[in-house]
Amino acid sequence: MRDNRILLKKLLLIACLMFGFAWALIPMYRVICEVTGINRVVKADAAPAAGSSIAPGVPVKLVFDANVQAGLPWQVKPLVRSMMARTGEFVRVDYEITNASNRRVVGQAIPRYLPAAAGPYVHKLDCFCFKEQAFAPGETRRFPVVFVVSRELPAELSELTLAYTVFDVPGKVAS
Amino acid sequence: MNIADGTQVASHIQHDKPRGLARWLFATNHKDIGTLYLWFSFAMFISGGVMALGIRAELFSPGLQFWQPELFNQLTTLHGLVMVFGAIMPAFTGLANWMLPLMIGAPDMAFARMNNWSFWLLPPAALLLMISFWVPGGAAAAGWTLYAPLSTQGGMGTDLTIFAIHILGVSSIMGAINIVVTVLNLRAPGMTLMKMPMFAWASLITAYLIIAVMPVLAGVVTMVLTDRHFGTHFFNAAGGGDPVMYQHIFWFFGHPEVYIMALPAFGIVSQVIPTFARKPLFGYTSMVYATSSIAILSFMVWAHHMFTTGMPATAQLFFMYATMLIAVPTGVKVFNWVATMWEGAMTFETPMLFAIGFVMLFTIGGLSGVILSVAAVDIQLQDTYYVVAHFHYVLVAGALFSLFSAVYYWFPKMTGKMYSEKLGQLHFWWSLVWFNITFFPMHFLGLAGMPRRIPDYALQFTDFNAIASVGAFMFGFGQLIFFYNMVRSIRHGQPAPQKPWEGANTLEWAIATPAPYHSFVVAPQLEVGDNGVILEMKGGEHH
């Protein structure tokens, strides 16, 4: 009988400890994730190392282009064909898009960079390519693109081209 | 020493059998409590089954026929909770109560009064679950896993569910402590650990799992409760908490829980198959070690339920390989059962049919489990009907079939009557056929992308859902055969001999049938072979 009581107490103790363990799991998971870094799904941008000055802007040639696939009812053209800018400064350029058909259509612009390696260095703040655009028959509209070319642009990329292709979105009719 | 001195029931044990309601309300006899457990779990099995039929009725055709989505979600949630905590776990505890003392030569369970408490906590908990359907907002609808943030938002039905889980947890921990103490301290002389029946081993290891993880479940639902009412933010992202943390803690309980429902089933078939194959259990020692290693591994695989939560690839790989590792000891067990049957002089009475059905269908469920363990595949199959098919193969054809096997196997010893073999076989073949018709198409539904816990579905899933629904209703009605067989046989069954099965050779068959109300008042002297086979017995009186 005494043996039974001792074992009973030990088992009850295990049960109580496991109840506490459930609560201890909360800080444990946090610590394990912090120490091992396995849960760092969203990484903060690394802060610039102390003392390093921001690289001065360097000149870069920007070329703007647009094209439409055969059979689609669009006319797309940049108002400026090319310009000189400096890295790290805001650039604004306007595009003019016309719905050349006699129906209402919804279009979506897809950007492309040449050379493709320049893509990560173009930081867009505003672009008509961010969302679908609805057009009345024959409507013409102007859209701005605002972007910054990063100061980290490698020196060998002194000229880059930003090109847009506009598609119509099937199944969508502008309201 | 008279072993009865070693238990609390020493003073009761000389009494006559109590009568009337008091016999059950104040029950301290392990056989009475075992009977209560078994009837309670049958009532819960029927309740959960009715909910399942509600689900299948709604899913018979696309669109909403019977229930609004809210009620449908409540049905899936309560079906899971009732079946897991109300039907399967109490049924195994009940069988352990009934058979363990008889199988290891103990006069009763170690703590008879606590045994009474652990049973009588169950009905109030079940009542809380059932009445939650009628409170404002209805029952809990977050799924049986009660994931945050769904569970931190529901109505008061969720609170009732949390309290019910607390009570069920206390009940099963007390039951588990009783089993551990009984098996470790009350075995008759000669019944050593490495000779005792596999059912005793499985119950012992399961009891340890319950003691280790039910408190974790109690802890995590308590956190949900404090998040709901006391302003904590354990799982509230807006307050700095983490809803995925809930899943981590829940599944730390949840995966061992899977084995709490599987290991006793392994124990049962390890008794039934040698009896009807008339051969000793193949590889008894490896069975003990396989069971233990499954239990230990079950603590290291919980995150395979969470492959789509955005876990880092390193963690996915760890949990994937750890999960696959469990297939090794499980495979050892399956091959041992097959090897036990190999060249055995098999006969196919109902318990054996259910045991063989268990081995075959559980293996199918185990293999779909291995498929799901592959992280890359699981991301496609997570929360689809493939998962539903998988866990019903291991829980219905696994746990439930083993329970039927056990009830038919020990029915003569419990009641002193024989069940109707004809009806038993009808019950088996009926269940086997309709079970597969219900759940096998769900594999296809899952592979085609049908999500679980949804009351409506896309048209291409109609045919397989209709088949599954017909199967489910037929399977459900078939359980009435079982009910009829039990009730009729208890009343009008043929008297059973002491040893109704030719190959039965464990301790419970060495005493009179039906098992005397107070058995092994004086501990027998035993000489025991592997798996509790009695080679020689001296003494062991009863009243």
TrEMBL record, chain A:
Keyword GTP-binding: no
Keywords in alphabetical order: Copper, Membrane, Signal-anchor, Transmembrane, Transmembrane helix
Top-rank lineage group of the source organism: Bacteria
Transmembrane segments: none
Gene3D superfamilies: Ctag/Cox11
UniProt xrefs under InterPro entries: CtaG/Cox11_dom_sf, Cyt_c_oxidase_assmbl_CtaG
Coiled coil: none
GO molecular function, one term: copper ion binding
UniProt topology in membrane: Single-pass type II membrane protein
Compartmental location: Cell inner membrane
GO cellular component, one term: plasma membrane
PANTHER family: CYTOCHROME C OXIDASE ASSEMBLY PROTEIN COX11, MITOCHONDRIAL-RELATED, CYTOCHROME C OXIDASE ASSEMBLY PROTEIN COX11-RELATED
Similarity comment text for this entry: Belongs to the COX11/CtaG family.
Task of the protein: Exerts its effect at some terminal stage of cytochrome c oxidase synthesis, probably by being involved in the insertion of the copper B into subunit I.
NCBIfam families referenced in this protein's UniProt entry, alphabetically: PRK05089.1
Name of the protein in question: Cytochrome c oxidase assembly protein CtaG
Organism: Craterilacuibacter sinensis
Higher taxonomy: Bacteria, Pseudomonadati, Pseudomonadota, Betaproteobacteria, Neisseriales
From TrEMBL, chain B:
Span of domain Cytochrome oxidase subunit I profile: 24-527
Residues annotated as transmembrane: 36-57, 77-98, 119-142, 162-186, 198-225, 245-269, 281-303, 315-339, 351-377, 389-411, 423-444, 464-484
Keywords: Cell membrane, Copper, Electron transport, Heme, Iron, Membrane, Metal-binding, Oxidoreductase, Respiratory chain, Translocase, Transmembrane, Transmembrane helix, Transport
A matching Pfam family: COX1
Catalyzed reaction equations: 4 Fe(II)-[cytochrome c] + O2 + 8 H(+)(in) = 4 Fe(III)-[cytochrome c] + 2 H2O + 4 H(+)(out)
MF term (GO), any: oxidoreductase activity
Annotated Gene3D superfamilies: Cytochrome c oxidase-like, subunit I domain
InterPro entries xref list: Cyt_c_oxase-like_su1_dom, Cyt_c_oxase-like_su1_sf, Cyt_C_Oxase_1, Cyt_c_Oxase_su1_BS, Cyt_c_oxase_su1_dom, Cyt_c_oxidase_su1_bac
Coiled coil: none
Subcellular location: Cell membrane; Membrane
Cellular component, GO annotation: plasma membrane; respiratory chain complex IV
Stored NCBIfam families: CtaD_CoxA
Protein name (record): Cytochrome c oxidase subunit 1
UniProt organism field: Craterilacuibacter sinensis
